[in-house]
Amino acid sequence: MQLLLIHSDYIEYETKKQTPVAEKIEDSLKSGRLEEALTAFMAVESADETNPEETIGKAVSEIEKVASQVKTDRIMLYPYAHLSSDLSSPKVAVNVLKGIEAALSAKYEVKRAPFGWYKAFKISCKGHPLSELSRTIRPEGAAPAVCGEKVVVAEEKEEVVSEALKAEGTARSYWRILTPDGELHEIEGFDLSPYPKLQQFVDYEISKSRAVKEAPPHVELMRRLELADYEPGSDSGNMRYYPKGRLIKSLMENYVLDVASEFGAMEVETPLMYDMNHPTLKKYLDRFPARQYSIESDKRHMFLRFAACFGQFLMNHDMTISYKNLPLKMIEMTRYSFRKEQRGELVGLRRLRAFTMPDMHSLCPDMAQAVDQFMQQYKLCISVLDNMGIDLDDYEVAIRFTKDFYESNRDLVNSMVKTVDKPVLVEMWDTRFFYFVLKFEFNFVDALAKASALSTVQIDVENAERYDISYISPEGKAERPTVLHCSPSGAIERCIYALLEKAAMETEKGKVPMFPVWLSPTQVRIITVSEKHMEFAEKVSKRLGCRVDIDDRELSIGKKIREAGREWVPYVVVIGDQEVEEDTVNVTIRAESEQKKPMKVQMTPEELKERIRAETAGKPYKGLPLAEYLSERPKFL
RNA sequence: GCCUCGUUGGCUCAGCCCGGUAGAGCGAGUGACUUGUAAUCACUAGGUCGCGAGUUCGAAUCUCGCACGGGGCUCCA
């Protein structure tokens, strides 16, 4: 039996004409209406004939379950033959319907539309996630249907939902574990116990089991460290960034751009909003699983970009590109990309509605070079995350591809797994649902076992055609390139989230949390024992030549030390009489300290400077985001 | 979007069940102390109790609606 359940404001029907299999009914049943009802459209199938009683029982329990979820006690049973291409005999169907009606009548107000009539009906679907559900019910032992998936989309309430979002509900995929030896394993039976993080990721992706009571630890940290905060004056998922958060973000953004530039990508900038009715964009919207912000602008209907694809592809379309220019790479640091994620999905910095994402696209002449580029970019992503403080142990790899692609590119996929040298999760589609044939993501698994994607690369085989992008081949002919999408780090905010969650997990394990030195808002904090040491402190600050601040507040040494620790300052320098005399500094090195066991070292300012220089070599640098003297700093929280 | 819990000085929270002039700690300001490694002492200021409506002689407290946040569902780069 096929069941389609719609929670509706109302449902009404009116019989029009009998079919040859029509049941006889009284006039009172020729039309009907229910307010606030769960409507069950149903088609009884031939498989149900083997055991109609069982079908009735299962259908009743499904309907009751949904009725209680949506909290309604009115049910409309509506025979709807179009749900199946393999119907039962009318006699069985009527018996099953009557059986369901009888069983439900005890607890619910039930109406049943007559069987075998052409009927006009009106329904108003409520549109919440549980309001539209479909179920397939089969007696034990009956063979599963082999016909193609059916997508039934009830009338949506004005909301623009892309076809890709709808299709995703029906995409058929297979999950496997791929090990570095190139073997594909069924998930059931594969021993994941040596890989607890992968286990958590697999659970998250597949069984979708997640029971969490607390707020994720990064939410408190992002506020306590004065990095970022909610902005009630904006839409949910649009954050404010305080100076320290802005500094970290800015350094990360610059780092990714530097790396991309070195990799040969040209930085560009494209508009934030686009015309919803632009013919090319409309089609692309339908292929991307995201919800958009939309904006009414005079008579045009605009949407906010959710990536830089549009802008770059439209630019590519207008360009004259020779095969000599390939692979052609462009990058934009999208500040912002907008996605109107569902409200309940937004948490801290993990998932936002406005986020900063490096978006790089590479045009390749053919699949061979695309595959080569893909591997280079895969390695680039590993290196970028590593340099930002997120290493291979902190995330799990997911590789997704179509069956066809895998079969002709096993070597590529296997060498990806060898590169990370640990089992990865694989998802294989039997047909291509999306614009890509191959993609990977690095999924960070947080302190509460929730996973979210960071870096990703995808091989796109659709958009060159859609945007009419071409290059001129050596033979002088226009050819379609293959396009790669790459976000080397993933969303910048999400990288900050990952660092904070990682720090929280390390704190749990008894370690001392910190940011990489190149990202630390304060790299060295100078604390003076008394006012008379200020002059020397200022000299030391200049000699260090990095982000040094001076705690000149009238507080006890103990308190200043404690606060420097709470801010995760990597080097805390205390200056008193001894240091002034010896021209040295006493440094507490956070990276080498343990909880309650600080690592204190006496060294010259130049030694400390050299140490920091070595640790931050090759990374972007910016000055202090706040006043040098702590007494001059405002509090943001 | 749905369910559920929450919203009280800048921050963290008590008070709400059982309606009667709003409390603490931290932070801030001022003063004392001039300090050697995880919270120095004293005083002072600071509150439309998220917003709107209702019940009541009287609402932080009871009821309803809305906004924002946490968790769950759903969904997902």
Can you walk through the features of this model?
With 637 residues, this protein is of the alpha+beta class. It is built from 17 helices and 28 strands. The strands form six sheets. It has a ten-stranded mixed β-sheet with strand order 8-7-18-17-19-20-23-16-15-11. Helix 5 crosses helix 13 (492-508). The protein binds one RNA strand of 77 nucleotides through helix 5, strand 20, helix 15 and strand 26.
Summarize the structure.
This protein has 637 residues and is α+β, with helices and mostly antiparallel strands. The chain contains 17 helices and 28 strands. The strands form six sheets. A ten-stranded mixed beta sheet has the order 8-7-18-17-19-20-23-16-15-11. Strands 1, 2, 3, 4, 5 and 6 form a six-stranded mixed beta sheet that branches. A five-stranded mixed beta sheet has the order 25-24-26-27-28, with helices on both faces.
